[in-house]
Amino acid sequence: MTKLLTLLAEPPVDPDIAHGYLNLLGEAEQAGPPTGITQRLMRTGMLPTVYERWWRPALGRIAKGPTGPSMAGEHALAVRLLGLGPGDTVLDVACGTGGFTRHFGGVVGADGLAVGLDASSPMLAKAVAATPVDSPVAYLRADAVRPPLRDGSVDAVCCFAALHMFAEPAAALSSFARVLRPGGRLALLTTARHAWQPARTVDTALGVASGQRMFDRGEIANLLTERGFTAVDVRFAGVTQFVGATLA
Ligand SMILES: C[S@@+](CC[C@H](N)C(=O)[O-])C[C@H]1O[C@@H](n2cnc3c(N)ncnc32)[C@H](O)[C@@H]1O
What we know:
- By secondary structure, the chain is an alpha/beta fold.
- The protein has one domain (2-247): Vaccinia Virus protein VP39 (Rossmann fold, 3-Layer(aba) Sandwich), CATH 3.40.50.150.
- The chain has 9 helices and 8 strands.
- Strands 1-4-3-2-5-6-8-7 form an 8-stranded mixed beta sheet, sandwiched between helices.
- The longest helix is centred in the N-terminal third of the chain and has 18 residues, at 47-64.
- It is globular.
- The structure holds S-adenosylmethionine.
- S-adenosylmethionine binds at residues 31-32, 39, 42, 56, 94-96, 99-100, 118-120, 123, 143-145, 160-162, 165-166.
């Protein structure tokens, strides 16, 4: 927690760590304006109990299609796209129950830090409970769109399965560029609408019903390039895209 406080742009005078994570949202139910049913579900008490074992693997498989990576494959891909190694500081934006954050903690080791940021108290409670106390992992309750970290303070930013449910995804990408050091790495897993028009229409309807934005192919890569990212590497799987990029 001490290491996490050093990363903050404005460390609180009296930090609220009563629940095992640093809470910067106080009593607020969520961060930013609501975006729909999926984001709301993430704040329920029931979802965190089934999220890592059932919900995420099942919905992920539907979204990624039969040829997309498994959950273990996603963990490995995230580490590769982020170029993570011992001693690194990584911010896992919208960490949910912390499955990726814990994995990153094992990679960065005792000299590094994996920070899991989320706005949902039930998700963070589950993440804290699942994380050994001596691991190099800390959790932060804050807004993913504007992470309260210092400029250039982290080596890597991961944001899997969440950008499409933020109220301001483009502003979130600007924030990710701001908190990364020059040469830092970004990894994203988000939506990607099919190019074929009939499939595109179905994708759009699904997005509207679930309150999740369906990005067009090329849209995220363009937003990243506009924000100073280079080496933008995009792989499509079903209605998803895995994106890796380096901040120039
Ligand atoms: C589907 S989960 C993704 C969890 C994890 N990254 C994964 O890949 O399994 C999406 C998470 O985004 C969080 N979230 C949505 N909008 C947010 C916001 N504006 N600020 C912080 N967290 C947010 C939700 O609380 C939820 O835990």
